[in-house]
Structure formats: structure tokens, C-alpha cells
């Protein structure tokens, strides 16, 4: 094994991400041993989330969230297809960027993960017992749900802000009107029920028509606040690349959500339109899809003190709050410094007129210097995102110069430059956005891969890098290809999750309306042209095993897996079924395969998940009569 | 000898007899025997517990999974209802407890010896029955079973461990069984103690 330190010999402490000399040993997890950390990576344009083990970087699972998944039938079967319903219809794909972990007192609690859908504004909740998507809520009055889903300190709310400002409510008006202020953005407060995790839209706040990019909420002393970056304060609508890059400073919006809730309770928000869906998957039952309409909308002018703009250079992207809740770090993607705002200063100056430089839609604009704690000077090119190790250091990704810079909070001095391969977007440290980072590992989530792996055609593997940050200097440990673009990640210590992973659906708790719990109840019931097959699976057979239907019948196979053993799912697929892919049915679960009986003939059905010694025998026939 | 049999036992030993009787009561609530199956495909192991009146899996679904495993080789389904002995075993235990109380009220050495004989005889019968039961399950296979290994039987060991295909089956007394053995020892000690006291007093 060749483990050569890759020196990048730059001065100024730069570019010395030597590969740790014993890197192979430090990422090696022997057969039968388990990883130390779960890494959940969003899949970007794949619309999914994937689960990796760290430090081995082994891929464990892909959790389908916003995109259909033929591997297990998510989004296709009668149980899950309602999860992808929206006010635009059935949208079987999305663009998923940010993963947030549920928190209690600002610390990861291992209950849920949340993921945004940027394209068709939605938010999803993934349960960390079953590692399955349990709820998807659509965000109305929004276009491009990018600054989402960022949680408050106790997961009271998830924030979701508009990336693409549009007329709200929607209207076909000239696009030039963007510059005249006819386009608006919204910030949504999505309430999370502390027991069940159920999501509801409690309030929206109408904000000026910029592009709201990212967010993070405060902790500790800044508990009441969330911070949103925005770009295109120029309100350019043509050649935005140039038009939106003119102003020397755009803004971080400081939003007091506790105050907003107060104003809501005082009746200061008004009824507003907006149609949206909320889709929820009860335990082992078909998803319930509700069409809701109307939200409460708050205007900043009716709720003084709810929002302030902090100027931030230049087209800020990331906004990250350090573990103490004091520092708000901006990532100005065109800036030459990393600006750090001080929460205490913000509190001190926010209502003093001499610290203001203007107002936009009744939102005070504070002076840049008034809230500034310090600047990291010339850190790199294109600083984007910052995570914290809990030991007083911050790590910022730099897209243009393809590196991660380590710097110290308070002194604002750069400590180390770590090359990344290539063009790093988000970073993730285990617990790095929480009040108590677990530190140790950092992954750089890259946008472009170039020559890291064997070429596989024009589209190269997506890629991430693992660093050990436990010692004085961060060290590169390994590269790993990922599923979809690894946009953002939450890493959670394994001990928080591994022992509570669900193993089976207990059959006695199966409340699916078409479940049967015993082979004796297996039957075929005809209701006019609809045929319902109540079917069971157990190693290694189906009941009923031969079935007759008539051509043109709509056949529902309600299949219950009777197994109660860990990791014995059975598959179900029918030969040539045009609209349904495979189903994977977990032990004790019931799922429904809908099939339009085709022209007369004999059609096989079979188990697709190699279940037992007689798996290959787990096959039978449907006869379609004329 | 007769002198020993008719000897009244000491107050201390009498209380011990009462203790043994009460200890027997706990056997209603504890598994007597435990069979464990270890195999690479079951990293968490599978197990079966035999109680005075029922058979259960070591964890909720173990028995169902053992039966699923067994159906390939044609073993009969193991369910409590298929073992009629379980119907009268609680009464046998009741009889032993009753004996302990009789001995407590009528504390003579011969009753203690009778108790020992009862436990030994019932123990031997029980072990024989258990062996017979294991033999039947292991040998009396369904001729239509999907997997038939010529000459192969699947009888678990009576006591100890045994390899069957890639499964290691271990069979040991569980808490209830251990209590029965310990009780037997206590009774033997009582008799030995009474004999010694008799010899010393001579």
C-alpha cells in the first residue's frame, strides 16, 4: 500500500492536506465491526438521501424521499404514491439540498431528519427508527424552497424561505416588475409536533423580493433568532450572473421567530391564500394525503422588531451559527473576507437609529460595522459554508479555490488550508451545526470530481472527502463516490441511533385495512371489475398461489409479509406489469400492487428479494381469462 | 437405618425444607430448560425456553423463526399444544411442593428421602420424556420436506452442545432446572447432616 503525503508546498501555511500516513488503518472497519458515525447525505438532484458509515465511507442505504424508487416501489404503490402529491399534481422527483437533524436543547436527539425539496417547495420528515420518509408537506406561496429546513434549538419550528422570489400570490405580470418590487419572498415557520413529529405550517412572513439562500437558527442566547442569507438585493431579472453581483453587500436577514409567534398570537397576521398538500404515512398503513388551503401571513410592518437586515459581503451563501450562539458566520461567495457578525452586538444596536442605514419594507437595515465581530481576511476564494468543531475552530469551504480553511473563532486567524478535490460546496462535521459538536470527522461535499476515480463516461462519479479533525492539523483520510450530488449532510454518532433501529413491523400491530395475518385468511374477492387479492408471503411461498382474473379487471394485490424475522423482506413483482415496479415488503408489512389485467394469458408473479433456500421456488401464476 | 429414617429432623433443617418448598414455587415462573441455536445467519442467535407449562422463544419471534427454519428439513412445528406433558407438569410440581409442606409439618428423615426419590424419579422420567420428544422431532421428518439429507437427523442434545449442519445447538438447564438440582442437593445435605448428628450423639 502506498501512502504518500501529498504536499502542496504553498507558503502562508497553505495547502498541506497531507494524506494521513496511516489513513488506511484509520478508515478500515474490519468485517463484523461497525462504523462510529452515520453520515446522511442528501442526493441533490437525485431527490434522495443516502446513508454512509464513517470512517469506512461504506454506502448502507438509499432512503427515497422526493423521488420514486423502483428498487422498493416507493412512490408507486397504493401506500406511498400519495406521498408525492402536490398542488401541482403528482411530482415524482425533486432537488433535495439540506438535511437537518432534530435537536433537543440544541443537541442532536436522533429522532428525525428533515430534508427540503427546492423545485416544488416541500419539506420531508424521515424517521430514524425505520429510516423511512414518514411525512411530506408542501410549502405554499413559495418558489424554490432553498433556505430550508433549518430547525430551531428544540425543533419547535423548521424554517423555509423562498429562493426564487415571485409574485405572491402568483400572477402573470411582466418580469420587469421584479425590479419594481412586485416580486416577493416568504419565510415559513413549519411547526413540528414534539411527540409525533407531525408538520404544519403555522405562519408565513412576507419579505422583500430577494433570493433567500440559506439559513441557520440560533442557539443558547440567540435561541429566538434565525438567520437567512439573501442575494440579488439588486433585484436583477436579466443576466442575473452579472446583475446580481453588483452590490458590494447583500444581506443576512435576522429573524426573531419568537416575536413572530407573538405577533401571530396577537392577531397581527392575516388570512392569506395558498393551496398545499400534507402527506403522512401512518405506521404500516396507506399514506394519507390532505389538501389544505390558506395560511396566516404576517407583514413585517405589522410586527416591529421581527426582522433586521445585516449587510454582508458579497452575495452571501452560507450563514452558520457557532455552538455558543454568539457568532453568525457569513459565506460571501464573491467576498474576499469571511465576515462574522456578533449576536450580542446585534442585540445592542438593533433598535438604535444611529446604527441604521435605511429600511426595506419596514425592515431596518443595520450598518455593517455595527454588528461585525470580525473578519477572516483573505481566507480563500469563494467561501461558502462553515461548520464548527466545538473546540474553538471553524472550517469554511471555498468553492472557487477548492479547499477547506480552518480558522480560529475570536482571533479570526487562518490555521490551515486543506485542498479538496474539487470545488467543495457544503461541509459537514459530526454534530457540527449543533450546540455540541462531536468533532472528529469532517466531510467535504464536492461538486466536481475530475480525475479522482476511473473515468466512467462524461458524467463522473459525485464525490466527497473524509478528513480527521481530531488532532491539531486536519488530515485527509479518504475519498468516496456518492449517490447524486452530495449536497449537505448531517452526521450523527452511531450510538445515538443503532440500538433503536426498527427490525420488523409487529404483525399484531398491523392496522392496514387490507392486511391479513394468517394464511388461512388468504383469498380473492371480486367487487365488479375490481379484484382484491388478500395475499400472504412467508418463506418460501405465496397464498393464494394460483389466481384467475378476467382481462380488463383492476387487480389489487394486498400483500402481507408474515415473517417476523429481522431482514427477511419479500419482494413482489408481476411479469410485464407496465406501471408498477418491484415492491419490497418488510416483515409484518402490507403493501399493494395495482395491476390492470392485460390480454388473456398466463402471467407469472414472484419474489424478487432473495429470501431463502427456496427463493427461486417462490413464484406462481395468474391466469387472465378472456 | 430404621432409626435414621424415623429420626425427627432438626429445627434448622425443617426450615430448610420449607425453604425448598417455597423455592419450588418459583419454578412456576422460571424456564426449566433452554435450547439455543447459533448459526452465522442468525448473528443474534435463536433460542427456545421450556417452562413448566409452555414452550416459548427466547425472544418474541424466536419460536416462529425456529419453526420457519425447521420447515425446510421437515421437522414438525413446535408449539406448546403439541406437548401434552406440559398439561400435567404443573401438578407434578404441585405434588413436590405439597410433599415439602407435609415434611415441614411431619419432620421425619424418611419423608426427606422420599422427597429425594420423588425428585430423582421424576427427574429421570422427565429427562427420558424430553429425550424421547427430541428424538421424535429430530427423526420423525416430513417425507415431503424440501431438503432431505440422507441419514441426517436433527435431534438436539439432551445436555451440552452439538453441531447440526451449520447450527450449533446447546441444551442446558435454565433457572427453574437449576433450582430443582439445587433443591435435590439441599435435601441430600439434610439427610447427610441428620445422619452425622445421629452418629455424633451416639
Structure description:
The complex is a heterodimer of chains A (about 625) and B (about 200). With about 625 residues, chain A is mainly beta. Chain A is about 5% helix and about 45% strand. Chain A has five helices and 44 strands. Chain A has a ten-stranded mixed sheet, with helices on one face. In chain A, strands 35, 36, 37, 39 and 42 form a five-stranded mixed sheet that branches. In chain A, strand 20 and strand 21 form a beta hairpin. The longest helix of chain A has 9 residues. The radius of gyration of chain A is 26 Å and the shape is globular. Chain B is of the alpha+beta class. Chain B has one domain: Butyryl-CoA Dehydrogenase, subunit A, domain 3. Chain B contains six helices and five strands; from the N terminus they run ααβββαααββα. A five-stranded antiparallel sheet of chain B has the order 3-2-1-5-4. In chain B, strand 2 and strand 3 form a beta hairpin. Chain B is elongated, with a radius of gyration of 21 Å. Chain B starts with a helix and ends with a helix. The mean pLDDT of chain B is about 90. The chains are: A mainly beta (about 625), B alpha+beta (about 200). At the A-B interface, loops of A face helix 3 of B.
Task: Describe the SSE topology.
The complex is a heterodimer of chains A (626) and B (202).
Chain A: H1 23-27, E1 37-42, E2 48-54, E3 58-64, E4 85-86, E5 89-90, E6 99-104, E7 107-117, E8 122-127, E9 132-138, E10 145-151, E11 157-162, E12 184-192, E13 199-208, E14 211-217, E15 225-231, H2 240-243, E16 250-256, H3 257-265, E17 270-280, E18 288-298, E19 307-312, E20 316-321, E21 327-332, E22 337-342, H4 343-349, E23 356-360, E24 363-366, H5 368-371, E25 372-377, E26 383-388, E27 393-398, E28 403-408, E29 414-419, E30 424-430, E31 439-446, E32 462-468, E33 475-482, E34 489-493, E35 523-527, E36 530-538, E37 541-543, E38 546-550, E39 554-561, E40 570-574, E41 583-585, E42 590-596, E43 601-606, E44 619-625
Parallel strand pairs in A: 13-18, 36-39, 38-44
Antiparallel strand pairs in A: 1-2, 1-34, 2-3, 4-5, 6-7, 7-8, 8-9, 9-17, 10-11, 11-12, 12-13, 14-15, 15-16, 16-19, 17-18, 20-21, 21-22, 22-25, 23-24, 26-27, 27-28, 28-29, 30-31, 31-32, 32-33, 35-36, 36-37, 39-42, 40-41, 40-43, 43-44
Chain B: H1 2-6, H2 11-26, E1 33-39, E2 42-50, E3 55-57, H3 62-71, H4 85-105, H5 109-139, E4 160-164, E5 167-173, H6 175-201
Antiparallel strand pairs in B: 1-2, 1-5, 2-3, 4-5
Helix pairs in contact in B: 2-4, 2-6, 4-5, 5-6
Amino acid at each position: 500500500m502506498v501512502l504518500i503525503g501529498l504536499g502542496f508546498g504553498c507558503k502562508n501555511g497553505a495547502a498541506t492536506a497531507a494524506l494521513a500516513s496511516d489513513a488506511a488503518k484509520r478508515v478500515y472497519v474490519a468485517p463484523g465491526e461497525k462504523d462510529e458515525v452515520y453520515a446522511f447525505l442528501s442526493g441533490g438532484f437525485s431527490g434522495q438521501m443516502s446513508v454512509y458509515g464513517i470512517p469506512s465511507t461504506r454506502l448502507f442505504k438509499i432512503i427515497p424521499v422526493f423521488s420514486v424508487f423502483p428498487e422498493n416501489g416507493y412512490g408507486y404503490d397504493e401506500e406511498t404514491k400519495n406521498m408525492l402529491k402536490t398542488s401541482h399534481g403528482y411530482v415524482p422527483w425533486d432537488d433535495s439540498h439540506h438535511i437537518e437533524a432534530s435537536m433537543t436543547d440544541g443537541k442532536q436527539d436522533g429522532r428525525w431528519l428533515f430534508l427540503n425539496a427546492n423545485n416544488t417547495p416541500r419539506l420531508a420528515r424521515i424517521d430514524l427508527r425505520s429510516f423511512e420518509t414518514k411525512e411530506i408537506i408542501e410549502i405554499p406561496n413559495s418558489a424554490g424552497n432553498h433556505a430550508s429546513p433549518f430547525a430551531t434549538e428544540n425543533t419547535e419550528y423548521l424554517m423555509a424561505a423562498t429562493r426564487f422570489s415571485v409574485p405572491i400570490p402568483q400572477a402573470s405580470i411582466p418580469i420587469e416588475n421584479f425590479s419594481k418590487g412586485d416580486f416577493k419572498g416568504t419565510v415559513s415557520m413549519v411547526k413540528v409536533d414534539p411527540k409525533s413529529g407531525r408538520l404544519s405550517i403555522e405562519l408565513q412572513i412576507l419579505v422583500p423580493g430577494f433570493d433567500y439562500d440559506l439559513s441557520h437558527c440560533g442557539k443558547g442566547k440567540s435561541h429566538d433568532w434565525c438567520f437567512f442569507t439573501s442575494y440579488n438585493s439588486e433585484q436583477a431579472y436579466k443576466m442575473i450572473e452579472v446583475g446580481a453581483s453588483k452590490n458590494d453587500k447583500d444581506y443576512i436577514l435576522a429573524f426573531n421567530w419568537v416575536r413572530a409567534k407573538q405577533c401571530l398570537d396577537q392577531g397581527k397576521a392575516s388570512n392569506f391564500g395558498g393551496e398545499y398538500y400534507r402527506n403522512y404515512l401512518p405506521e404500516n398503513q396507506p399514506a394519507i394525503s390532505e389538501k389544505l388551503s390558506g395560511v396566516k401571513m404576517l407583514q413585517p410592518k405589522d410586527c416591529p422588531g421581527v426582522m433586521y437586515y445585516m449587510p454582508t459581503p458579497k452575495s452571501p451563501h452560507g450563514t452558520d451559527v457557532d455552538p455558543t450562539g454568539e457568532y453568525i458566520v457569513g459565506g460571501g461567495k464573491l467576498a474576499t473576507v469571511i465576515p462574522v457578525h456578533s449576536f450580542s452586538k446585534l442585540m445592542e444596536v438593533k433598535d438604535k437609529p444611529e446604527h441604521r442605514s435605511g429600511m426595506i419594507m419596514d425592515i431596518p437595515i443595520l450598518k455593517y460595522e455595527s454588528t461585525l465581530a470580525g473578519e477572516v481576511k483573505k481566507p480563500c476564494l469563494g467561501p461558502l459554508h462553515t461548520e464548527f468543531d466545538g473546540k474553538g475552530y471553524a472550517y469554511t469551504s471555498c468553492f472557487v479555490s477548492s479547499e477547506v480553511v480552518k480558522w480560529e473563532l475570536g482571533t479570526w486567524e487562518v490555521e490551515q488550508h486543506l485542498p479538496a478535490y474539487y470545488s467543495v460546496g457544503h461541509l459537514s462535521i459530526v454534530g457540527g451545526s449543533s450546540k455540541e459538536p462531536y468533532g472528529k470527522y469532517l466531510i467535504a461535499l464536492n461538486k466536481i470530481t475530475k480525475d479522482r476515480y476511473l473515468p466512467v463516461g462524461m458524467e463522473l462519479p459525485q464525490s466527497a472527502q473524509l478528513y480527521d479533525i481530531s488532532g491539531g492539523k486536519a488530515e485527509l483520510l479518504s475519498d468516496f463516490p456518492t449517490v447524486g450530488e452530495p449536497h449537505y449532510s448531517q452526521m450523527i454518532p452511531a450510538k445515538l441511533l443503532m440500538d433503536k433501529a426498527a427490525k420488523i413491523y409487529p404483525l399484531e400491530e398491523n392496522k392496514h385495512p387490507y392486511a391479513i395475518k394468517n394464511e388461512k385468511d388468504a383469498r380473492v374477492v371480486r367487487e365488479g371489475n375490481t379484484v382484491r387479492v388478500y395475499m400472504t408471503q412467508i418463506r418460501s411461498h405465496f397464498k393464494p398461489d394460483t389466481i384467475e382474473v378476467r382481462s380488463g379487471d383492476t387487480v389489487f394485490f394486498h400483500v402481507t409479509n408474515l415473517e417476523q424475522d429481522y431482514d427477511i423482506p419479500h419482494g413482489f413483482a408481476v411479469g410485464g406489469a407496465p406501471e408498477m415496479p418491484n415492491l419490497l415488503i418488510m416483515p409484518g408489512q402490507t403493501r399493494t400492487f395495482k395491476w390492470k389485467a392485460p390480454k388473456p394469458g398466463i402471467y407469472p408473479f414472484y419474489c424478487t428479494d432473495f429470501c431463502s433456500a427456496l427463493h427461486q421456488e417462490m413464484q406462481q401464476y395468474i391466469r387472465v381469462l378472456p | 437405618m430404621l432409626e435414621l429414617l424415623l429420626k425427627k429432623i432438626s429445627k434448622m433443617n425443617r426450615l430448610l425444607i420449607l425453604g425448598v418448598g417455597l423455592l419450588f414455587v418459583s419454578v412456576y415462573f422460571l424456564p426449566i430448560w433452554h435450547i439455543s441455536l447459533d448459526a452465522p445467519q442468525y448473528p443474534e442467535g435463536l433460542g427456545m425456553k421450556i417452562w413448566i407449562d409452555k414452550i416459548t422463544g427466547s425472544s418474541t419471534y424466536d419460536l416462529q423463526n425456529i419453526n420457519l427454519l425447521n420447515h425446510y428439513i421437515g421437522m414438525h412445528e413446535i408449539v406448546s399444544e403439541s406437548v401434552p406433558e406440559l398439561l400435567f407438569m404443573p401438578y407434578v410440581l404441585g405434588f413436590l411442593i405439597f410433599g415439602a409442606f407435609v415434611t415441614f409439618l411431619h419432620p421425619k428423615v424418611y419423608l426427606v428421602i422420599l422427597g429425594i426419590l420423588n425428585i430423582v424419579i421424576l427427574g429421570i422420567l422427565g429427562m427420558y420424556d424430553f429425550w424421547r420428544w427430541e428424538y421424535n422431532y429430530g427423526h420423525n421428518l416430513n417425507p415431503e420436506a424440501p431438503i432431505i439429507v440422507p441419514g441426517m437427523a436433527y435431534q438436539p442434545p439432551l445436555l451440552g452442545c452439538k453441531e447440526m449442519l451449520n447450527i450449533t445447538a446447546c441444551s442446558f438447564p435454565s433457572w427453574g432446572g437449576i433450582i430443582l438440582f439445587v433443591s435435590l442437593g439441599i435435601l441430600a445435605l439434610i439427610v447427610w447432616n441428620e445422619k452425622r448428628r445421629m452418629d455424633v450423639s451416639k
